[in-house]
Design goal:
Elements: H1 2-6, H2 16-27, H3 30-42, H4 48-60, H5 62-71
Helix pairs in contact: 3-4, 3-5, 4-5
Length: 84
């Protein structure tokens, strides 16, 4: 049964270890990218056009975009005012 699942990949010459490495390298960036996009959409920024700019950056440059957003973009958000 398990060989039937991997049969279509046999002609490519990839084994289970190679597929796992490919999944980690290319699929591992999806979750941080999705978290950055959700955080950007829910946040308010100091200037009105900064949200649009970060959304465009996240969509056009997904792998580097989320890294830049977490280091640069989060500092550009408005600070929350706590009420007592």
């Amino acid at each position: 049964m398990q060989t039937a699942l991997l049969a279509p990949l046999a002609y490519v010459g990839l084994g289970a270890a190679e597929l796992l490495i490919i999944l980690v390298l290319f699929g591992g960036g999806f979750i941080p990218w999705l978290l950055a996009l959700i955080d950007c959409l829910k946040s308010e920024f100091k200037e009105a056009n900064q949200k649009l700019i970060w959304i465009v950056v996240l969509l056009l440059v997904p792998f580097l975009g989320w890294i830049f957003y977490f280091f640069i973009g989060r500092a550009q958000r408005k600070t929350a005012v706590t009420r007592i």
